[in-house]
Amino acid sequence: MSDSSSEEDLAAFESVAVTGLHITSTAAKSASKAAGAAVSVAGTRGKAGDNGHAGNYSLDDKDAPLPQGFQDKLWNALERRLEKSLKTTSKKRRLEDEAERPLQNGATEAPAEDQADDMGLRLFGKVKVGTPVVLSAPVAAPKRKKRKKESAQEKEARMSAQLDEEAQALQRLQSVVVEASQLMERAAVAAAKAEPHIADPDAEDEEPKRKTRIYIPAADSAKKVTTHWHGGTEQVEWYLPNGRHTGLTQWHSIFSRDETEAVEKQVDQIFNVSNRSRYMSTTFDDKEHSCGRVKAYFGGRVPYKGPGRTRTPQADVDAVPTFLRELYGQLEERIPAAKGRALQHPALLDIVEINMYRPGGRLGRHVDPIIYKRPIVMVRLFNDGFLSLGYNCGLRRKEAGPFFQVPMMRGSVTMLDGLFADELQHMVKGSDVQNKSATILPRSLHREARNVLYERKRQRQQ
C-alpha cells in the first residue's frame, strides 16, 4: 500500500467527520491501516499494548490487530489534526459569508455548511450539542472625537449662560418659599381661631404629637417698621426679609413713668417674702435656686409638663388683684384699634402670670400652650432685657431657622401672634438678665378651658 492511498483514506475519514455522520467500521479500519502503513514507512516502532503484542508490524499482514496503546495515540493524532482543519475551514467560510451578505439585527444564523463544520467540533466536545451556531457582527470601536479648544469668548459666553440659569432657578425657589410662607401664615390663623380640645382632668397625660416643622429662611436681621401715634406711643412691627410679618409687635412709651413705678411697687409687695404668707402656697412656683426665677399665678394656673403635655386649668390659686385688671384695661384702651381688637375685655381676663427674675435668672425655651388665646401679651418692668426667639433660640451653633433677639424696654408691651407665637420657641437667657426684672402676662382661655376653670372654682367655694 502506498502513501497516496493512506492520504485518500484519511481524507475520506475527515469528510465523514465534517458532515456529522457516524464513522463505519470499514472506514475506521481503512484509516487505521493507512495510518499504520504511514507509521511503518516512516520507521516508527510500535510499543506493547494491553494485549501483549509488541514489535514491528508488516504491511502484508492486513488482518493483524494493532496494539491498544498505538490505537489510542492514532486516534488522538487524528482528532487534533481534524480539529485544526475544521477550525481553519469554519473561520475561512465564516469570513467569506460575512463579507458577502449583510447582517440583520447584529447577528445571523450560520448556513447549513457552517453548521456541518461546527458539527465536527461537537463530536469532540468543543461545542454543546443542540445549540444553534450564531455569528456575531463585528463591532467597530467608536472613534474618539478630539475636543475642540474653546476660545476665551466662547468660555465667557458659556459661563454667562450658566449664571443666567442659576439666577432663574434661584428666583423660582424664592417664589416657592414666599408662597409656602403665605400658606403657613393662613394655616396658623385658622388654627388660632379653632377652639382646642380640653382633655379629661382625671386622665393621664397624652403622648406629645410630633410637630412638622416648616423651614423658614434664616434671617440675620429682621426689618422693623416704626409708626408714631398721638400721645407719644411708638409702635414697632417686625418682618422677615421676604416681607412676611412675624407676628411680633411692640409698643413703647405706652405707660408714663409714674404709672410704671406704681405697678412695680405693687409687684414688689406681692413677691416680698414677708407677705407670701397671705397667699396660697400654690400661688407661687419658686424656682429661684434652679432658674433664678419665681413665678406667681392669679385666677388660675395651667401646669406645664413639656411640649404638647399640658393639664387642664387648676383653680387652687388666689384671685386676680385689682391693679392687674386695671392695667389690662389700660392696654385695651391705649393700644390702637388695629391691634387692640385682638385683646379680650378685662372682664374676660382669666389668668395673670408674673415672672420675677433676679440677675442671671432665665426661662427655658418653650411654646405657650394652645389653650391660651392669642396674642401673647407681655409687660416689661424694672429693667430692660431681651427675648430670644427661634427653633433653638441661639443655643446651638447652627440654627434650623431664623433667630431673633428682641429688646424689651422697661414699661414696653410686646405681643406675640402667628409665626412667633405658634411656630418658634421663645426664652429668656440668663446672660441677658443683668438686673432685677419682671414680666406680667395677662391671659385669656378658650371657651372649653374657661368652663373647666370656673367649674372648679365653684367646687372650691362649696
What secondary-structure arrangement, pairings included, does this model have?
Layout: H1 3-18, H2 25-41, H3 68-100, E1 107-109, H4 112-123, E2 134-136, H5 152-193, E3 223-228, E4 234-239, E5 245-252, H6 257-271, E6 284-287, H7 288-291, E7 293-298, H8 322-334, H9 337-340, E8 351-357, E9 363-366, E10 376-381, E11 385-390, E12 403-408, E13 413-416, H10 419-422, E14 425-428, E15 437-443, H11 447-461
Protein name: Alpha-ketoglutarate-dependent dioxygenase AlkB-like domain-containing protein
GO molecular function, one term: oxidative RNA demethylase activity
GO biological process, one term: mRNA export from nucleus
Give an overview of the whole structure:
This protein has two domains: 3-44 and 62-136, no CATH class; 223-461, Sandwich (Jelly Rolls). 38% of the residues lie in helices and 17% in strands. The chain has eleven helices and 15 strands. It is elongated, with a radius of gyration of 51 Å. It starts with a helix and ends with a helix.
